[in-house]
């Protein structure tokens, strides 16, 4: 018996394939369970026509995806994220942010087609977009701090600069004080030795 499978059957074949099976297997199992239909001339002709239309539809879908891929040529996305002073992103940048950035450039996209996992660091990255099972594009994007984060980072940097300046002044003052302390004993010794020499010189005259 020749049958056309209407769905995948483990150990036998896949949907729309034509197979020859034992009459008992076909009549007692495949046909009653609607896993298959008889491969009559009419059924085979209808199947071929359906496969032809399906192939044309599949080819058109792929062609549309290839055409859509052209819109991504030369595109680079700039995405802002809230970050800490250490430049670690709060949360992550994922499909939602990438889709939003594409929308700003006039490209509408289903977030499910963005295969890139969440990005948690600033810098250059690449998003993989699957437009069709055989058509995909890579879109570079850069993640930078948003306005509030930039302000916070600049303020933190300014504070560190001010702290370093204060520390430098403190070190200079300490060095100057150390230098003065080192010079003082030499002057005192000179002042002490001078009178002693005068007393030595006057001693013989007294006798």
Which descriptors would you attach to this protein?
207 residues, Ribosomal Protein L9, domain 2, Ribosomal Protein L9, domain 1, alpha+beta
Protein described:
By secondary structure, the chain is an alpha+beta fold. It has two domains: 2-68, Ribosomal protein L9, N-terminal domain (Ribosomal Protein L9, domain 1, 3-Layer(aba) Sandwich), CATH 3.40.5; 71-149, Ribosomal protein L9, C-terminal domain (Ribosomal Protein L9, domain 2, Roll), CATH 3.10.430. Helix content is 51%, strand content 22%. The chain contains four helices and eight strands, in the order E-E-H-E-H-E-E-H-E-E-E-H. The strands form three sheets. A three-stranded antiparallel β-sheet has the order 2-1-3, with no helix packed on it. The protein has a three-stranded mixed β-sheet with strand order 4-8-7. A two-stranded antiparallel sheet has the order 5-6. It starts with a strand and ends with a helix.
C-alpha Rg, in Å? 43 Å
Write down the overall geometry.
elongated
By CATH, the architecture of the largest domain is named Roll
For the sheet with most strands, the description reads: 3 strands, antiparallel
CATH topology type of the largest domain: Ribosomal Protein L9, domain 2
Give a brief rundown of this model.
This protein is an alpha+beta fold.
List the helices and strands and how they pair.
Layout: E1 2-5, E2 18-20, H1 23-30, E3 36-38, H2 41-69, E4 77-81, E5 88-93, H3 95-103, E6 119-121, E7 123-132, E8 135-145, H4 147-206
Parallel strand pairs: 4-8
Antiparallel strand pairs: 1-2, 1-3, 5-6, 7-8
């Amino acid at each position: 018996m020749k049958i056309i499978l209407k769905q995948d059957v483990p150990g036998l074949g896949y949907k729309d394939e034509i197979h020859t099976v034992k009459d008992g297997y076909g009549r007692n199992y495949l046909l009653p369970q609607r896993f298959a239909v008889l491969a009559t001339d009419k059924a085979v002709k209808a199947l071929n026509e359906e496969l032809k239309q399906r192939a044309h539809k599949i080819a058109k879908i792929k062609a549309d995806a290839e055409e859509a891929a052209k819109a991504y040529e030369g595109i680079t996305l700039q995405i802002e994220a809230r970050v800490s002073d250490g430049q670690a992103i709060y949360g992550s940048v994922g499909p939602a942010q990438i889709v939003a950035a594409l929308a700003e450039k006039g490209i509408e996209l289903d977030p499910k087609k963005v295969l890139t996992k969440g990005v948690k660091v600033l810098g250059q990255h690449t998003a993989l977009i699957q437009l069709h099972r055989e058509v995909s594009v890579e879109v570079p994007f850069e993640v930078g701090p948003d306005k509030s984060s930039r302000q916070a980072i600049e303020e933190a940097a300014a504070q560190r600069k001010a702290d370093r300046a204060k520390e430098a002044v403190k070190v200079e003052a300490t060095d100057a004080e150390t230098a003065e302390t080192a010079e003082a004993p030499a002057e005192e010794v000179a002042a002490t030795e001078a009178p002693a020499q005068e007393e030595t010189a006057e001693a013989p005259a007294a006798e």
